[in-house]
Design a protein that fits this description.
Helix content is 80%, strand content 0%. The chain is built from four helices and no strands. The radius of gyration is 17 Å and the shape is elongated.
Length: 142
Amino acid sequence: MAILVSGAPERMDRSLIATGMIVVALGLLLMVWAMPSGSVWLVAVAMAAMGGGFGLSWTFILRRSTALADGDEVQRIAGAIPVLQRLGYALGAAVIGIVANASGFLSMQAPEDGAHAARAIFLACLVPAALALVAMLGLVRR
């Protein structure tokens, strides 16, 4: 997706950011159902939606963030975004590890236990996804 939209003009940034983030959220919602059901095809569709949504929006999030920054803050913003992205990966992995352990991931005895853990993991991801959608609204407003 990132390659397909790479030449998009700046006037499309807001719509590409919004579309991409909504697609990510919809892919995550699908994962809440797809992973516990065990459908490989649904999992593939959900993961493609999430990856495609990020690819659709990420470059334009960076471009819009730096365009909205004051001239003397552009370098700081451009450097802070990848740092915050990596921090989000680390914190997200830690929190989801706690959720997985609390949902019985380590003591699974049957496939139903795995489905319960998968459901808990992806349901826990809906909270940060909702926060991301709220933040996205702030980024794309005029």
